[in-house]
Design goal:
This protein has 204 residues and is of the alpha/beta class. The protein has one domain: Ribonuclease H-like superfamily/Ribonuclease H (Nucleotidyltransferase, domain 5, 2-Layer Sandwich), CATH 3.30.420. Strands 1-4-3-2-5-6 form a 6-stranded mixed sheet, sandwiched between helices. Helix 2 links the parallel strand 5 and strand 6. It binds manganese (II) ion. Manganese (II) ion binds next to strand 2. The site of manganese (II) ion has 3 residues, from strand 2.
């Protein structure tokens, strides 16, 4: 049922993913200033995953157009990191965004387990394999294990979003979540500009 499409360099023009897409990225590490963006994964929520491997010239006009399209909602888990990566390496503003991690923190106050694996298990009933998380995403060609891992991070985000939307609505926190999502580009800019480790809203 799951189908993986591996694209090298850019997303083909012919791929139509609709107006709500699940997105994730893989990079050389977790520091958006230091670590190069290597892979962008996309899914329309239909069981197909498009894995776009990027090379260091970041010459990917189709992908950039889609990710910065104001008519296309991008769903992420921990969008803060991914949109900082896109601002830094693709030089685009990736909006509008919907973050399943923020939504989980606002809706699932009965737990502190907000990682994608835990959220997916509880809300979708699927188990994720995280074995390839720390692999060399800068390699010339991605392995089948890497492609499978990368695909897994976007395949469930649509269903997770719907489940979290219902919970946010029930708890009366939908507007609060939307306001947080709107702030994310600014949060990503703060990360890139040196305020990554400090909370500018705190008293101290
Ligand atoms: Mn990932």
């Amino acid at each position: 049922m799951t189908k993986i499409h591996y694209h090298r360099g850019d997303l083909p023009k012919t791929v139509d993913l609709g107006s709500i897409i699940a997105v994730d990225t893989e990079a050389m590490g977790l520091n958006p200033v230091r670590d190069a963006l290597c892979v962008v994964q996309l899914s329309a929520g239909d069981g197909h995953a498009h894995i776009v491997q990027l090379f260091r010239d970041y010459d990917c006009p189709n992908l950039k157009r889609l990710l910065s399209d104001p008519q296309v909602l991008k769903i992420f888990h921990f969008a803060r990191f991914d949109i900082a990566m896109m601002r830094k390496w693709l030089e685009i503003e990736c909006t509008p965004v919907w973050c399943t991690k923020i939504a989980s923190k606002l809706a699932r106050t009965y737990t502190d387990r907000h990682g994608l694996k835990d959220v997916t298990r509880e809300l979708v009933g699927a188990d994720m394999n995280k074995a390839q998380q720390s692999s060399d995403w800068g390699a010339e060609t991605l392995t089948d294990a890497q492609l499978n891992y990368a695909a897994g991070d976007v395949l469930h985000l649509h269903r997770i979003r719907l489940a979290l939307l219902a919970m946010l609505e029930r708890e009366g926190r939908q507007a609060l979540a939307e306001a947080c999502f709107k702030f994310l580009p600014t949060r990503a800019q703060l990360d890139l500009d040196g305020w990554d480790d400090s909370d500018i809203f705190s008293h101290t």
